[in-house]
Amino acid sequence: MIAENTEPLLRLTWTDPVTGTRGYLVVHTLVSGLATGGTRMRAGCTLGEVEDLAFGMAAKTATFNLPVGGAKGGIDFDPKDPRAKGVLTRFCQAMRPWLDASWVTAEDLGVPQHFIDEVFADLGLEQSYHAAISRAADPERTLRRVQAGLNAPVPGGLLLGDVIGGYGVAQSCLGAAYAWGWEESATTVAIQGIGTMGGGAAWYLHEAGVKVVAVADAAGTLYDPNGLDIPALLELRDRFGEVDRSTLPAHVQQLPRGAVIGIDADILVPAAISYAITPDNFDEVAAKVVIEAANAATTPEAEAMLAERGIPVIPDFVANAGAAAWAWWLLLGQVGADPADSFLRLRNEMQAKVALLLGEWNAEGTRPRLTGWALADSNRGTLVEGAEMAEATGVPALTIP
User: Fold this and answer.
1) What pLDDT is recorded for position 156?
2) What counts of helices (H) and strands (E) characterise the chain?
3) Strand 22-27 vs strand 35-36: parallel, antiparallel, or unpaired?
4) How far apart are CA 24 and CA 390, in angstroms?
């Protein structure tokens, strides 16, 4: 059971021979011999953190009926350090047995997709989905499909692979608004983090007519109760997702970084770091619902305290699962390079799941995480039964076209 089986299959600790940096791989679950989960890099990353995230990935893949298990990689190193690529390259080289056979990784905090793909290319592995692509009936065709999907242009001058995760978070927010009958133009959102995930969510919420009244980066919180000009702000970001303050309009208020938690908005989206909402600051939350765009954004204790205040948390393994789900739909040939197809499927699936979670919250007071776990357990049971039947009959459990 997803909710009960918290003991991972594998914990692996690596030490970089050059810098002494520690890196970690945790494989929580294998399904069809595969596990999926990104690789993050941040100073202070711990084995416990990576283990929590691997568990979250197992829940994520089960919730979205993906025929793979969950894993996570993490490196305790500053991604802004000029030695970061060397550290990531040596980490991936050390993980080759898992990356070759079982672990499908991708971008995460501090590691953009293009960055990890560069490292994989340097190692002769072509792309970070290597373990899955190598199993395909025609690996070259599958690689072309994956690259076409990742690099498909979308409005705003960006690429589909860079925005799909944020799009999924935006649809989670809209799903919450629709569940409670809120009009888009009357809904307000505060977002902690304006990198790949937070920035993408902000863009698509703005496009939908929602007022994004606050965003926070490492330098502080930017606030406008009438709604920020999100496209203009995104243009001011550097490659680390920080906004250049030198040309900000005068009416945009500059507040401390932590102020975003207490902004008076309908929806709070922690999209930057894990454990952003804790027992120390949960009482500052002014939103009606929290949408976890960052992995493990709310500690279990804080989530329980928020529930007592009547504030539900849409858990990360639902709210931010868009990128992982889409990557596997792309690998399995269920979507292609047309962004419209990907957006439609993700919109439908994300809004339906959020409606289910908030329906149980509204009717029974059941925390969304518990409803999500129940859905994951049901889906995983069906997948495992199918895999066992396939094994018994000699049919491959997972076919990648």
Assistant:
1) 80
2) 14, 15
3) unpaired
4) 33
- What the block records as the tokens of 176 is 């919450």
| Lookup result for tokens 């595969």 | 34
CA distance 223 to 251: 9
* Residue given tokens 């992982």 in the structure block: 324
Distance CA 328, CA 335 (A): 9
Active site residue 72: yes
Determine the distance from the C-alpha atom of residue 252 to the mean position of all C-alpha atoms in its chain, rounded to a whole number. 28
DSSP 34: B
Catalytic site residue from 72, 211, 288, 353? 72
Spell out the residues 6+ positions from residue 142 whose beta carbon is closer than 8 angstroms to its own: 133, 136, 331, 333, 400, 401
Q: What are phi and psi of 92, to 5 degrees?
A: -65, -35
5: exposed, middle or buried (Cβ count in 10 Å: 0-12, 13-18, 19+): middle
**Strand intervals (E) in 86-147:** 103-104
Q: Which two tokens stand for residue 259?
A: 């102020």
The residues pairing with 253 across neighbouring beta strands, listed in sequence order, are: 223
**pLDDT at position 383:** 65
For 343-400, how does the pLDDT look when each residue is reduced to its tens digit (9 = 90+)? 999 999 999 999 999 999 999 999 999 999 999 999 987 766 555 555 555 545 578 8
- The overall average pLDDT reported for the chain is 93
Residue 260 DSSP one-character state? G
CA distance 185 to 174: 11
Return d(Cα 372, Cα 139) in angstroms, integer: 34
Per-residue pLDDT reduced to its tens digit, 118-171: 999 999 998 999 999 999 999 999 999 999 999 999 988 889 999 999 999 999
Three-state secondary-structure class, residue 44: coil
